[in-house]
């Protein structure tokens, strides 16, 4: 029986210099006051609505939390990463499917009221600010994409959630 995840995560990145894979910048969002884990630097995260496809939830959350849509997203990736973690608030283990979105150079987020800050960071800085081990693993996977697009193409996903390479 398939496991239905609870959450999605989307790591957003861009190249400051489109010709230089080492110029990768990863977008970090800071959780706003009054929310659980206020002040935490993270990626886009959110719940999957009943009946919603997993990738569709990721695209929806991406747009809701950053304003990024098809005009800004160059390539969308399923990172082949599922994070399981214990969440004391629901006294259960939750599953989160992790995606990445490569946005055009110069793209800037329009953050939602869920966050009170946003910053572009180098992969090393993003890893340093990441609290959860799963975040660090996701950042490392994202940082590899511009350096090995031949391998990354296997992770490419349409905005409908279908694998590009079959």
Question: Short description, anyone?
Answer:
The protein is of the alpha+beta class.
Task: Tell me the radius of gyration.
Answer: 15 Å
Based on secondary structure, the structural category is: alpha+beta
* End-to-end Cα distance: 23 Å
Number of helices: 4
Q: Which percent range fits the helix content?
A: 10-25%
**Uncertain runs:** none
Query: What would you call the shape?
Result: globular
Mean pLDDT: 92
Strand content: 35-45%
Main sheet specs: 8 strands, mixed
User: What's the total number of strands?
Assistant: 8
SSE pattern, N- to C-terminal: EEEEHEEEHHHE
Task: Record keyword descriptors for this entry.
166 residues, globular, 8-stranded mixed beta sheet, alpha+beta
Give your account of this protein's structure.
By secondary structure, the chain is an alpha+beta fold. It contains four helices and eight strands; from the N terminus they run ββββαβββαααβ. It has helices at 54-66, 123-129, 133-144, 149-152, and strands at 7-15, 24-31, 41-42, 44-47, 73-87, 92-103, 115-121, 156-157. Strands 1, 2, 3, 4, 5, 6, 7 and 8 form an eight-stranded mixed β-sheet that branches. Strand 1 and strand 2 form a beta hairpin. The longest helix has 13 residues, at 54-66. It is globular. The mean pLDDT is 92.
Detail the topology: elements first, then pairings.
Elements: E1 7-15, E2 24-31, E3 41-42, E4 44-47, H1 54-66, E5 73-87, E6 92-103, E7 115-121, H2 123-129, H3 133-144, H4 149-152, E8 156-157
Parallel strand pairs: 1-6
Antiparallel strand pairs: 1-2, 1-4, 2-3, 2-7, 5-6, 5-8
């Amino acid at each position: 029986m398939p496991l239905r995840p609870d959450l999605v995560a989307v790591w957003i990145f861009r190249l400051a210099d489109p010709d230089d894979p080492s110029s990768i910048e990863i977008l970090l969002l800071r959780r706003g006051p009054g929310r659980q884990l206020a002040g935490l630097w993270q990626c886009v995260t959110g719940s999957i609505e009943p009946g919603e496809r997993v990738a569709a939830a990721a695209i929806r959350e991406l747009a809701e939390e950053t304003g990024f849509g098809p005009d800004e997203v160059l390539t969308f990736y399923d990172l082949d990463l599922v994070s399981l973690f214990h969440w004391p608030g629901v006294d259960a283990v939750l599953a989160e499917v992790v995606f990445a979105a490569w946005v055009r150079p110069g793209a800037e987020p329009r953050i939602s009221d869920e966050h009170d800050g946003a910053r572009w960071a180098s992969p090393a800085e993003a890893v340093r600010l990441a609290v959860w081990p799963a975040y660090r693993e996701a950042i490392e996977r994202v940082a590899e994409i511009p350096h090995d697009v031949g391998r990354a193409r296997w992770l490419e996903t349409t905005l409908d959630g279908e694998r590009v390479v079959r």
